[in-house]
Automatic annotation (TrEMBL):
Belongs to the glycosyl hydrolase 1 family. One of its GO terms (biological process) is cellulose catabolic process. This is Beta-glucosidase. The keyword Hydrolase applies. Pfam families: Glyco_hydro_1. Its EC number is 3.2.1.21. GO terms for molecular function: beta-glucosidase activity. GO terms for cellular component: cytosol. NCBIfam families: BGL. SUPFAM superfamilies: (Trans)glycosidases (SSF51445).
Amino acid sequence: MTNGFPPGFTWGAATASYQVEGAVSTDGRGPSIWDTFAHTPGRISDGTTGDVADDHYHRFSEDIRLLADLGLTAYRFSIAWPRIVPAGSGVTNPAGLAFYRRLAETCLDNGVTPYATLYHWDLPQPLEDAGGWLVRDTAEHYRDYAAVTHAALSDVIKHWMTLNEPWCSAFLGYGSGEHAPGRTEGTDALKAVHHLLLGHGLTLDAIRSDEGSYGIALNPAPIHAASESAADRDAARRIDGLRNRLFLEPLLAGKYPADVLEDTGTTDWFGQFEADLPVIGAPLDFIGVNYYCPTTVAAPDGPVSSPGGPTTQPGSENVVAVDTGLPRTQMGWPIQARGLRDILVTINKLAPDLPLYVTENGAAYPDELTAAGTVEDDERQAYFEQHLAVCRELVSEGLPLKGYFAWSLMDNFEWAYGFSRRFGIVYVDYETQARIVKKSGRWLQQFLTS
């Protein structure tokens, strides 16, 4: 045992293609919805784009060596669909496949196991123009892209995740419009939920082999009612349904939660596609959990902090977010490490033998370089300490938690916040592209190697 964790426990850090790669028009890459969104005035809070980001496309060897030097043995990255199939469907781009082969081989050369996510939100723009995730064709095009990618790279990548946080893709992309493609389609956003999950199932069927391990990365969260009143408990039921059960039940139990479909008036629409449920519910080798914070909600007469965040989903009308006084990160997200326990135990009860990974966990703070050239991010270090203590407890209790990935390896383009939020254990000077390991990164290194 090392620090309470068994031998073979996976320790890694994560990134996503649009957030770090840059090189958006290099070697045949096509445009994605995030290219379009970031270049639309007013969409990104600081007016920046991911055109250059961390220049990871050219600096990945340096970044992977840095990850390995920190004592991490796994790298979770995402593959950019527009690099592989620039138009979303049709012709494959060999240069895109070659880039990810170089990346994976560099991981292996440095003793780092590659974990690839096939979709981390960068839908090719031509497919959005044809309807995006609101149309079924996108799920089938996604399967085809994934099959090509897997066939080309499965000799060097053995661990695959189909989707990252489909809740965000559907509800922030097509519900609230906070993320690309920036659409506000009301309850039609639930169509995107189904097509994303269908794409996941079709892809598993197309790529699964005995030599690989296949899963999905979700962002479930514990949902608490602000009080024991019937109205507040019903508010919590609604948000738990939209945030958690709408994804976990079709994946693990082969059905959509009836109350969520009734709440959103989509029972008849979903009823047309019951034949898709066995595809969506195909057996998984693991589930990845991206955990950041819990959510407390109330009916509108409760103590309101802001109506944003998790209550922007279609079907969450008459629900408000409540500030319970917990400390918060720069994102405004409340810090509660035991929420990680709650959500992992919940999933374990649904699928007792299914391996689990924490595929993202971290915090944003307004980091600054000191005169000595260091970043003293004590709050982030404390965040990691608290959440890793929970992971240690769960492993000791026998829960099948197999690995932990810090979010993020390095500061990057934080979606609609641009470069105004830093999550990395490595500081990035965006003018020079210099990488500087933060105090939290050095702490993690010592934790892993002591």
